[in-house]
Design brief:
With 314 residues, this protein is mainly α. The protein has one domain. Helices cover 72% and strands 2% of the residues. It is built from 15 helices and 3 strands. The chain has a 3-stranded antiparallel beta sheet, with no helix packed on it. Strand 2 and strand 3 form a beta hairpin. About 4% of the residues have low confidence.
Length: 314
């Protein structure tokens, strides 16, 4: 049986690494949108801060949410929310659980930590940003594959999968939030500001799919052009795509069956699944996805709370 403190650190190591990868994917969505949209399109940079749950900390330090300040805050600063800060926390959790983790995994996390520390500031500029983010995403994917292929299927692996599943479900809702938020306030013309037209919204949703490496799978399963309803339904309710919210919650059910005292966590997980599956996406797109996404995020957060109360030290 795994010690409680070790289980908690393994769990949080997985969560931090998944959060790092998905934060990098979020930043890639914004960076790619700037290239695909007309040059005078305004991007709602503060929406990105809100989606990552760091608006309070950001607003205390910066008066305005501009591209440079948002990128600095989410890439390089020692604030608990940036890619560099989260890799530092993942590295510390990995360092203190080296007896149950493959040596190669710690070495890879250590490499990513130092790479981010040395190069994150460069990512503030548009030129080197894509290369930096791709290196982070690729490194996290390599770590996921390494752990999948080298860790015995025991409690260590189960808590690793628990952390990854909870974080991935939560972050997918946040990436979908990019499309439902006030991301494209308008396109400024020569004389006045006009509303964003449908084609630009489709570009945005296409980039959201690509940020999750979901574009090809979406086109295989949805025989239609990229549109908000199908994209949101695919990323939230698809039972077969590994980054969809429902898929990850279903995976958590399988993992929980292998752990003792799982009753309270399973009850909360089933509640979250009912909320996620019960969303009528076509109607929600008309009245707004905000409330639905907020409820999903609350239910997923409650899964974490039940996990912590059941298996971790107070």
């Amino acid at each position: 049986m795994l010690l409680s403190r070790v289980a908690e650190r393994v769990y949080w190591q997985a969560r931090y690494l998944e959060r790092v990868e998905n934060t990098a994917r979020l930043l890639n969505v914004f960076s790619t949108l700037m290239l695909d949209l007309p040059s005078k399109t305004k991007l709602g940079w503060h929406s990105l801060v809100e989606i990552t749950g760091s608006s309070e900390a950001f607003d205390k330090k910066y008066k305005q949410a501009q591209e440079r300040s948002v990128m600095r805050f989410l890439l390089a600063e020692d604030n608990g929310y940036s890619i560099s800060a989260m890799l530092a926390m993942a590295r510390e959790n990995s360092r203190t659980t080296r007896e149950v983790m493959p040596t190669e995994a710690f070495e890879k996390i250590n490499y990513l930590y130092h790479y981010a520390k040395e190069n994150a500031v460069k990512g503030e500029k548009r030129g080197p940003r894509h290369e930096f983010l791709e290196e982070i995403i690729t490194g996290c994917q390599q770590l996921s594959g390494l752990m999948s292929g080298t860790i015995s299927r025991d409690d260590t692996y189960n808590f690793l999968l628990l952390g990854r599943g909870v974080e991935r479900a939560d972050m997918t809702t946040r990436i979908v939030d990019v499309g439902s938020g006030d991301l494209l306030p308008g396109i400024t013309g020569d004389n006045a500001e006009v509303e964003v037209a449908g084609p630009y919204e489709n570009i945005m949703w296409m980039n959201i799919l690509r940020s999750l490496s979901a574009y090809q799978m979406y086109r295989q399963h949805v025989q239609d052009i990229v549109n908000p309803e199908d994209v949101v339904e695919f990323l939230i309710q698809d039972e077969n795509f590994p980054r969809a919210v429902v898929y990850n919650l279903n995976e958590l059910k399988v993992i929980l069956k292998q752990l003792p005292r799982n009753g309270k966590v399973s009850t909360q997980l089933n509640k979250a699944l009912r909320v996620v599956r019960g969303g009528e996406i076509d109607k929600l797109l008309v009245v707004g996805l905000f409330d639905y996404i907020d409820v999903m995020q609350v239910e997923i957060a409650s899964i974490h709370q039940k996990i912590a109360a059941t298996w971790f030290l107070n």
